[in-house]
Amino acid sequence: MCRREEPGRVDRGDFVNSLGSHTAQPVHSLPAFHLCHPKKMQWVLISTLLTILYAQQLSFRASGQRQQQGNSGESAANSELHQRQELCHWPCRCPPVPSCSPGVSVVRDGCGCCRMCAKQANTTCNEAEVCDHHRGLYCDYSADKPRYERGICASFRNVPLVLKKKCLIQTSPWTPCSRTCGIGISDRVTNGNSKCEMRKEKRLCYIQPCQANFTKILKIPKGKTCRPTFQLAKAEKLVFSGCTSRQIYKPMFCGICLDKRCCIPNKSVMITVQFDCPEEVPVKWKMMWITSCVCQKICNDPGDLFSELRLL
């Protein structure tokens, strides 16, 4: 049934709800006409469709702006979360070259600036404080997600220990040092190798320095007749057969006694020393590193193979 619209009258159908919005937008009132007229009915439909499309466009724009603001806020938070600390600074300002513990390599830091004592296994590391690559270590950052800024020195691979069932390991004692002062050599025979073959192993030994005046400088505690161990005042590079160690060392030496007793190594560990040789390739030597000495009356001559024999 057709009816005539009156000017200024607003009907419920004249409001179009915007998508995603709670605000209703009224449609402008049209002049009075008969809705049953075909041409006028066509204009009413076109006007209504345009209004709906315009409302949808406004809704989509508002939704896109909210999403863009959310993404920008999230990216800002992520950038703040993943911002790495600057550990390297230029120009380089380096402290004196450190004196590292025995067996610890002196390497250049991750910034390419200064010499440092390389980080060892299971110690913290970062971009500047690098691990000891001479021992096959690298900085594992996997536990520091998502920053990946601080890690732990770990080994590239753990080689399993394979025990040969048919190989009974036999090892002779180390021979006495070939020199009573300065760097000498001691050796032993062992089959502790992959082929279970008896082979001779050699290592360096350093019982006492050859400085003539060290006995005068060395002070024995009051009331004592012996000083089992001592160290020189300064660390120094080791020299052996014309080759010089890359690092400086401060070895522990066996001391002296006021009576006829002599001091010999009691406990020691094995370290590896790398030497640079003129006009030759660098070489590595195993070396006995003394940790304690004992003073006793039996003083064997290192060069005498029959010093332990006794007449019946």
TrEMBL record:
Localisation per UniProt entry: Secreted
Gene Ontology CC: extracellular matrix; extracellular space
GO biological process terms, semicolon-separated: cell adhesion; positive regulation of cell differentiation; signal transduction
This protein's UniProt keywords: Disulfide bond, Secreted, Signal
A molecular function (GO) term: integrin binding
Coiled coil spans: none
Domain IGFBP N-terminal span(s) in chain numbering: 84-156
Residues annotated as domain CTCK: 226-300
Membership in a protein family: Belongs to the CCN family.
Protein name, entry field: WNT1-inducible-signaling pathway protein 3 isoform X4
Organism: Thamnophis sirtalis
Organism phylogeny: Eukaryota, Metazoa, Chordata, Craniata, Vertebrata
Gene: WISP3
